[in-house]
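Continuing from the previous page...

OK, I double-checked the sequence for F-box domain-containing protein against my notes and this is the correct one:
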Amino acid sequence: MSQSSVDVSHITTSHEITLLSLPNELLFVIFKYLTPGDIINLSSIDRNHRNRLIPVIFLKVKQTWQDLKNEINGTTNFLIKYKRWIHELRICDCDASSEWDLDIFSDLLIDMSSLQHLSINSPFSSNWLKYRSHDNLQKLTLYFDPSYLTESEIKSKMNRVFNLNHIANFKVLKQLELHNYQLYGDEKNYPVLILEDITLVDCTWEYPFELSLFNYNENIKKLTLKHSGNNPFIVSERYKHFLTKESFGSLEEMEISFTEGANLPDMRSSFILNVLNKNRFPELGKLTIGFPHLTKVYKKPKVM
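Thanks. Re-ran it with the corrected sequence; updated structure tokens here:
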């Protein structure tokens, strides 16, 4: 057979692109569009796929408080074994006693240097965090899922209160997400924090607290407020005061959204102009208002 007639259709090169050869950064982008089950199925193809997909499979993990206890006392070693790849950990059940009695930060999480985001299903106030610390955590989410509590426990649940001083020992925290908390603060006592991004989901506050007190060091760049439409707080005097009076000198982006419900605040064009006023929000470049079935984005023209 002559050289010119050789069949080369089956020949591959060492530069062939396959799933196994893609960099982690690209894998993370691709797998955002797949379910966890899909990724696990791919990892089951063979050992090579399983080893290659470990960074994706264990990027986000969830544990119960009992799981964390088992890790600390050495019964299991799942978190330590895969700590190199775990960036996000979610504690999925409620256990107020463990919050106080078990210091997961110094006994376990201190060894997880790749951990960036911790989500805690917490039924009570956040003041237990005053006695905890972490030097690498960049995002903290405090939420409440009542499905892990009995009906009597839910009825006896105390008001969930949050103060910035509760997280004073999380020095590198940049993102904070709070669900269903009553916010308060002391104007005379502020922690040293570098928070840049705050998300509040159905949170409330009372006089004399103002939401702008969270921006005492003029460091917050993004503020997101999410509300259920049946939450009476969104038509309260305190909320109206925030919408019409308070100022955030450093804020660059703000998002306010409402789900289905009857109680929706007035968001006419006069309000939009008020928010985009350079005296109240001098650095604000983007405002997003979300109603059921409608989202509008307003951008402040850049001054040349």
